[in-house]
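task queued by scheduler; priority normal; single chain, no ligands, no partner chains; default sampling; output format set to structure tokens
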Amino acid sequence: MTDAHTLGRWPADRARIHPDRVAVVDRGVELSYRELDRRSALLAERLLAAGYRHGDRVATLTGNSADQVVLFFACARAGLVLVPLSWRLTPRELTAQLAVCDPAVLLTEEELTATARLAVSGLAAAVPVARLGAAGVETTAPAPWRAGPAEPGRRPVADDDPLLMVFTSGTGGSAKAAVLTHASCFWTNLSLSRTLKLDEDDVALAVLPQFHVGGWNIQPLLAWWSGATVVLERTFDAGRVLALIAAHGVTTMMAVPTQYLLLAEHPAFAATDFTSLRTAVVGGAPMPAPLLRTFHARGVALTQGYGLTEAGPNVLCVPPQHAFDRVGYAGLPYAHVDVAVADPATGAHLEGPATGELLVRGPGLFAGYFRDEAATRAAWRDGWLATGDVATRDEDGYLRIVDRLKNIFISGGENVAPAEVEQALGRHPGVAEAVVCGVPDDRWGEVGVALVVPRPGVPVDAPELLAHCREHLAGFKVPAELHLVPELPHAGIGKIARERARETVLALRPDPVPGDRS
């Protein structure tokens, strides 16, 4: 069978078993599995009748919505590819991404229509813009949807057909469109189900945006496969999220460290009823250990995970039963995922406890970057996906993500991982956020310079934080300089834009002074 792993049948499967169960809650409006199945099937028929062809890209510019969920499953049924674009981008940035993905249509919600039209106006070829909320579901498809006559002799949707195209949120260079097939999504959700089990009684809170791979493949798709309910949040507001957890009896969720920090700092956190929240996953960046313990103290098994868009994204996770005794780890590989630790210099795979570049292999990995063969080839190393991340594996096989390979700098002949220094700074109660960048130095080759956002209401200064670093780090790891700043630049959810941070660092230190290496 070449269609055993296609996702288009998932709503129909659940609708047969429990048609009246709630599949989606969108701003208080419920969508049952019966309606999800009916609407996605009808929309798929309309798209095919309008002339959309196998493999056509359907781009969207919208917040999280039930309409986009319907569209996802309609694309899955019709053999089309959903390309959710970020509403956080400027029209110029969107134009660049539209040029890459070459969509047949751009669907948008009403408040983003002006941005969408500006974005397509910069393209060499015309791309029609239509409103997602009027996506031809209940009425005749509007004119901008029409792409030509129906495709003759259409073949069935196959496992290796592309389904989801997500732009990577790299901090430098042009964004690339990672292609996930039906099989990619099937296997990454099957893998997830073997560690984070969901069933029809679960309620998953989805706070990650749907233009992020985690907005689909970290719990929402697994929830719809399992017959659970997904509560969609369009924007993150800590007070509202805390209220939703209690009001809907949320049993599981996934968020990034910054979002969990905002929850913990909200005045309503102490009084929120977390008894329903069985497990929660953090990803996107390493989670400070004190923040993990804050949630553990409330009985929430908050577990660190690790992944990347090209891997579907799920690679590592601390099993919920070990959340309390494996604080700070990224965890073990999910089922159906293989990992290796390779020597960055030779590429040789290292056995046992080791530190090196993390490599990933498995059926959930992406099919490549859309129309970018050179970048696709560069991502693979003898059948393994090269993550570019440095990992440390202990004697039990548990892994920690140390840093990005490209972030490592050499100071006085010693390798320094900025993430390790940032984690040490994060243990100080006066630090809300920190980034460390390696910069050229005449004496040491490179030294670290830290930018720190102070935590509101906690008096702190640079000398105190540097003294804190000296207590917890070897001398060569202590930043040569530390600057307090009001905010840090970000790229993507929960990720610091290190190149922009480095530009800030260089602007702050025109005359570098060698640091103390004792």
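post-processing summary
- The mean pLDDT is 89.
- The chain has 15 helices and 27 strands.
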